Queue: 2 jobs
Job 1
Amino acid sequence: MAMLSRIAESLFWIGRYIERSDGTARILDVHLQLLLEDPWIEENLACRSLLSVMGSDVPDDGRSLTRADVLASLAVDRTHPASIAYSLGAARENARRAREIVSTELWECLNTTRARMPRKVTGEKTHEFFGWVRDRAALAVGIMESSASRDEAWHFFTLGRSIERADMTARLLATRSLTEASGPSWTTILRSCGAYEAYLRTYRGVPSARNAAEFLLLDRLFPRSILYSVTRAEQCLRDLGPRNERIGVTDSAQRLLGQIRSQLEYRPITDILQELPRHMDSVQDATSAASEAIRQRYFPTNNAPSWIGESA
Amino acid sequence: MVDLFDGYGATLTPAKRRGSSSPWDEMFPEPKSQDPVEARAAYKDIYNALARMTQEELRGRTDALASSYLAQGVTFDFAGEERPFPLDAVPRVIEQKEWVDVEAGIKQRVKALEAFLSDIYGNQVAVRDGVIPAALISSSTHFHREAAGIVSPNNVRIQVSGIDLIRDEHGDWRVLEDNVRVPSGVSYVISNRRVMAQTLPELFVSMRVRPVGDYPNKLLQALRASAPNGIDDPTVVVLTPGVYNSAYFEHTLLARLMGVELVEGRDLFCSGGKVWMRTTAGPQRVDVIYRRVDDEFIDPLQFRADSMLGSPGLLMAARLGNVTIANAVGNGVADDKLVYTYMPDLIEYYLGEKPIIKNVDTWRLEEPGALEEVLDRLDELVVKPVDGSGGKGLVVGPDASAKELETLRNRLIADPRGWIAQPVVQLSTIPTLVEDGMRPRHADLRPFAVNDGTDVWVLPGGLTRVALPEGQLVVNSSQGGGSKDTWVVGQEPLFSSNDGHNIQGLVAEQAAVTQAIPIIGHVPDHSPEDRPRNQDQAQQQQQSRAQDARPTAEGEVL
């Protein structure tokens, strides 16, 4: 049974925004924590890189950035498009637009999350705050997973989550190149996406650059790896638009995701590591483009009417 | 301003004992005045940060520490009730330049202990040379003949040690006891640091605290290095007595952070002189066992036959060189408090060096005249059983009742080999938040050292334990003790010189990398309806600009 494009789009974006708030909270938590624990990291530089990795503008007025600045913009600023507060707000707005399809439980979860989003987080409460964001995201996802029918609505939601996950993990891996010389940063990176313990159990030992990157990029079983997320997104797309083509793939989102997946899956890990930022950049390119392709195919109504002057 | 420390000085000389001077205070050099203001250099930043807080505020944070521990399950069992492991909000600070000496002293001690154990379970040259009496060794409860000749290929018996230090009245470090069997507490060092950084971040600002998170890596490397010969990729396991053990949290934490299996005795079996664990894919060989089970329980074929905690045949497998048991069986002889009294001589004998950290003066009761002198002065000495650790069985003379002293007297006469006596050492004090406010409390320090056969690595810091009751000198978590995060700080932290590059270089490298690769994350995608307004505005502006431009362009065409 088909569903309204508009509703499908909302579900897609609820998935993306929930996942984004979770991913952002994880990245910030571990990196801000590291700033405290490891005295040899230069705070200003680290904060600037963090901002830039999260895709937000880095002020170039030459003043020193601190943890508090990062926190103010990426965590609680409701108007900052890369912030947690923004994502939580947008997730709730999307749920409101699709209120008739979104279950009451999920709606209440997203609604109260937005309402309880603090306007200010003090230094000692940051860890608690990020924990809260993770909890809320887990709750929202859990409600969907445990009670939503596996219909189109669920598929769009999961598709959004998977695409956002791939994007978040790519950003996270890009932060690695910021701290090339310091020892613990692979540990940090693994920890920030909850992969540390899973990694230790898989590789039984100290994170090495090669193994950790391999795990987060290419592991077929770990649900936050880029490969897993992209594969899952592809599966969602196949379930949404089953085709029996004998040749090739006509859906451009599938094609984009398939391309980036093959690139990562079949390239030697050492090659990827050498140019990690570039490859992570292309992952973000691909997810962005796939997102756009999905929009064009499934949510075409949103060709927002815009006024064109009569003279044109 | 000094609200938090009000009345600190007044109680600094608690229950002054006969014939002893007042303790060394870690934070304040002038403890006699009512309101100490001038903190020692190492504590200046901490003091200033704390002085900005009110008592209520700090109590709030302390509660947060406790509830975080409850949530994480960092608890201990208190009369059947789960209590959070007590962590005090005020850290202990040790300056790097002082730490260098402590570190060197610990390394020296561990090396001497290794040499001693290797000798005692080998040719016993030290006995032949008259450095230590044979009777002492053979009468030690923890000397196990069964362990003779069992050693890992890299000759390490003490993979992990926790040597307890105290600071005396003059501020000098002294060794209180050696723990080379299964020293515990390192998990608290790791989790204390984490929860402190999460709850009291402002204390860390401007302090360069040396991180402690490297411990599990170092331990895993040391365990792998001790694996039997010919095993390229050894399987390491942690052997725990089970969930009811008081250190179970530590066992799980270490296994988790090393990424190895946590096994109980029933998960293991020995066959053909090899050790296996039962897995879903059938038996799997085990090469290194980091055991947290005492000697007496590890192998019912060799020790207690009723033990369910070990696995029959383990010691045979170790003797055959098919498995490494870490720490080695039989290490307890080095923990014997009478052996402790010989340590300064043993360090000179084995290493040809003067001890860097001194012992506490100790009477050996079997020496002529010693027992008489000790019995005479029983009410002013501390008396300890030789095979206890962590304050078990210890009697503090000045605090004991006449009846207790009488019982003790009889026990000493009956078994002079089983006891040692020491003068009362006033352990140093550190400000600690108790019910009355910030008050001095006695503390010790257990630094942890890991020996991988090529180097002894000392964890920067260690576990500081505080005795919470006023004037209490016995510091142990099983006796109502608390703990403190321990910071090694210094402007010029010294990496061990073989690292090859210094910190400035490291920072510069980081900076260079950051500048060389401009990483611009993508601007996050947004749903068309939730696109940030300014972006819309920017687009609109572009649009209008395009519109503005168009007529001109057309004009040009025209």
Job 2
Amino acid sequence: MSAAHRPIVFTLNGRRVSLRVHPLRRLLDVLREDCGLTGTKEGCGEGECGACTVLVDGQAVNSCLVPAAHAAGTKVLTIEGLKGRHPLQRAFAESGGAQCGFCTPGMIMAAASLGARPTLDDVRTGLAGNICRCTGYEGIYRAIRKQEARSQKTEDRSKKTGARSKKPRRRAR
Amino acid sequence: MRTAISPLVLLQPRSVREALRMLREEGPPTPLAGCTDLYVGFNAGALADRRFLNVRGLGALGGIEVRGGVLRIGALTTYREIIRSAHVRRRLPMLAEAAREIGAVQIQNRGTIGGNIANGSPAGDTLPVLAAAEALVELRSLDWTRKVPFADFYTGYRASVRRTDELITAIEVPRVEGAQWFRKVGTRAAQSISKVVMAGVRADRPRIALGSVAPTVVRARRTEDALASGATLAEAQEVLRQEISPIDDTRSTADYRREVAARLLAQFWLDTR
């Protein structure tokens, strides 16, 4: 970081941040090195593997191909922003969606960009840019489908209980 | 990342006019938008450029519209926007098909059609579509706007008629009559650079363009002539094999590309019968 650079202001996992970094610094490096958020991984460094996937304004991007200048004014969401409580995270753990785990943050962020109930086809297309060398993908697809089933259940339940609970209560572990 | 960024400069214009002034007076810098190609070179330490011009966010360069029968696509339009555009799906469906096979979602969300044209790779996936559609490339400088027929745009391997003080601002596609066809052949559907890529329009005079078979994307005019004058498919395939000049490289071989190009021609001809 250097005082010579104009500050780049954006929202990171719901909090406003202002950083004096080189405008061409990769968002990946800004996240990992300047913000200490090492959940986002670097795989290939050329937009092939998807390990560095984060969401910018809700859209999946390879953070190794995004200059810091292009984060200005946006909302960036990383795996840390899911706080370990996203239904996808539990589903990946329960369904063997992760083995070595290196691709997992990118997989989960790409899956999170697909919305609540993607079709299997949406999942295949939406994760085509995320490479996993361990699982063979079946566990990953299973996890995303399982998450769908669960959010479906949650939705049904909230319909029944109506407006009684405003916040979805966290399930006891 | 193998490129040291501290000596690099990013110019950040707030308007197209300011961008054009910077292109003329400051370097000239390399325009940068989606960064999906440029940063690959960056990360590999293979980029010689030192000054860059941030054109992303210049709203005047975005948007898709149909005006006077012409489909106009702003240079900053992303592949995602192309895939979702009703105008494109209705008037130039082969472009939407090409956009769907570029990289994967992460790339489609950022990469721009202007970037694909500027980058000028012989394997650029939208380029055979623009060639077969006889698109015009709009170039703007501080003093003029000109529209260059796509067939005249490239002058050699990654070289074009764009002057360094000009910016690609849009492409314009006149109405395309006839069935459109697109096919990319690579190692897999997503994330692959083509071994051969082809776009075709089936009209009285068919239009056929190919990528990854020559130093630039090319129209196969002799093959088109053969088909228009009633040659058999087998004869046209032979003309095509002679007409293209593929090479052996890391992705494929010249022989394979020649054979696949001929087979794509047959598939195009059967599919649009």
